[in-house]
Amino acid sequence: MLYRWLCTKGYEVIVEQQIAHELQLKNVKTGTLAEIGQQADLAVVVGGDGNMLGAARTLARYDIKVIGINRGNLGFLTDLDPDNAQQQLADVLEGHYISEKRFLLEAQVCQQDCQKRISTAINEVVLHPGKVAHMIEFEVYIDEIFASFRSVPMD
């Protein structure tokens, strides 16, 4: 198990609370993703790209590196192969890695000057009016440069 291996290497490990509960781990230090982001230097996400995107959405607010062990299908965002993950992670922990920076998108959904929701994303943001073939108008800022669009949603 990854947790035990990291502990034997002398690392302090924080397991995300929900994962610790699902795996029925006892006597382990747990925390929320936000707490992990505040306290850790590296987050290891085990799962597919969806897990990686979900974790990155929260961890993006913190100065923490994130690496993924692919347990999904594509593995576009997860760097480590599950069959060699332990050795590959050992290499990373020894400083043998190339760091990639990802662009983050921030979407703010507002209605009549009332902010409703702010969300961050890595790949894409989807805007949909909730009605088929209904015109929507939205504003886009790229590096604080304004652009305005109108669009008919496509199926």
TrEMBL record:
It comes from the Bacteria. GO terms for biological process: NADP+ biosynthetic process. Gene3D superfamilies: Probable inorganic polyphosphate/atp-NAD kinase, domain 1. GO terms for molecular function: ATP binding; NAD binding; NAD+ kinase activity. PANTHER family: NAD KINASE (PTHR20275:SF0). This is NAD(+) kinase. It comes from Escherichia coli.
